[in-house]
Amino acid sequence: MSLRFIFVVTLVLSSIGCFSDWNHNPNNTGFSPSVGGGSALWTPPDPPPSLDECSPSDDAWNDITRLYVDTEWSIHELITCGQVQVRLAQSMLAIVLASNEDLFRGDTFERVAQYAASFGLDLESPFEQAENGRWSMPIDGADPTSRFWVQFFRPGSEEPILDDPFRLDSYLQGVHVETELTLDEMLDDIERRNTFWFFWQEEGPLIDLLNDGEPLARIFKVEVSIADIAALVYPFFDNSGAEYGPLVSLVDAEMISCVELRDTRDRTVVEYRADGRRDTIAAIAGDGKVAFDVDAIDATDGTYTMHGDATDLRFLDVKSLAGEIFYEITGPDLSIEVVSDFGSGNPWPVTRWACGDCEGPHEAPE
Questions:
Q1: Cα(285)–Cα(95) distance, rounded to whole angstroms?
Q2: Which of 279, 304, 327, 274 is nearest to 76 (CA)?
Q3: Tens digits of residue pLDDT in 23-55
Q4: 76-89: pLDDT as tens digits
């Protein structure tokens, strides 16, 4: 089976959403996460035997399971945001390279970006610059205050990078690129590597992230093929011979992320903050994982409240979470504990219910 055939199949599957809704979710544009779903189509089962001792009434059971399901739909946004972060890390080199628009001879940036998007790479950052080096984007369908943001650091530094890490001129200024092949010639043979010669004039503020911090020659080359670029997202392509030159060390920069979400679903209001642990861009891209710490998940329907937390809840690059979330649901004469167990990787959890410590009536939140 030829690599070209695999590449064509990849493009077809990507276009119908079999690999990722990164670029192809009709409700989104580009990288944009969006809250979806809800409890309207979900009918709760009978209370499990583990709740016999606290025996919630039918009405109470319906209310608390609706509260739980609404919250889980909101938690599911971590999968979307985790996928955004992984795809961003995988696309980082391509985004920086493509920010210099004479990358391809005689081809417009829009045409190059269209080809890249067909196999899962976005050549423009989806984030807007915010304060203190943060790069932020809204979460569609949630409260307007809900944001997903990332922040970058030099290796080992506690000071965030304030310059734009997505633009080549933040690293090198006055850059001119000359190439040996056109885009069409590269597409005719996706394994054929093109040589890109980079000529630069001045150092940018992030030059220390290039060439492992060593002095950089005024002229250097990058040698990649279409298959090499596809391998940034799809590991079954072999890019072991690709040469990104001094640019490759820019992915040794480190990043953190944060999901700050407030979501309203009918009577249910859900709020939480999930902090993505610090790691290198290269590690996030290669492992396809983001570890989230969630200090507090708070949800209420006006009668019952649910509080939860999770440590080391991991996004896996197969549209899944791994780990457990622990909740306590309280309300009038009721206390129930519930665990959402995603195991080693599942899009939806196995749920375990138990009676909590009920110490009398609880006040309904205002």
A1: 14
A2: 274
A3: 333 233 234 454 554 444 344 578 889 999 998
A4: 999 999 999 999 99
Token pair for 122: 């976005």
CA dihedral angle for residue 271, residue 277, residue 278, residue 283, rounded to 10 degrees: -120
The pTM of this model reads: 0.84
b/e sequence 286-312, b meaning 16+ C-beta within 10 Å: eebbbbbebeebebbbebbbbebebee
For 271, what's the count of Cα atoms within 13 Å in the CB-facing half-sphere?
8
- 222-223-228 Cα angle (round to 5): 120
**Measured between alpha carbons, how far is 342 from 116 in angstroms, rounded to an integer?**
33
Q: In this prediction, what percent of the chain has a pLDDT beyond 70?
A: 83
The residue to which tokens 């001045």 are assigned: 202
Q: Where are the domains of the chain?
A: 1-94+109-163+253-366
Q: Position 170: which residue type?
A: S
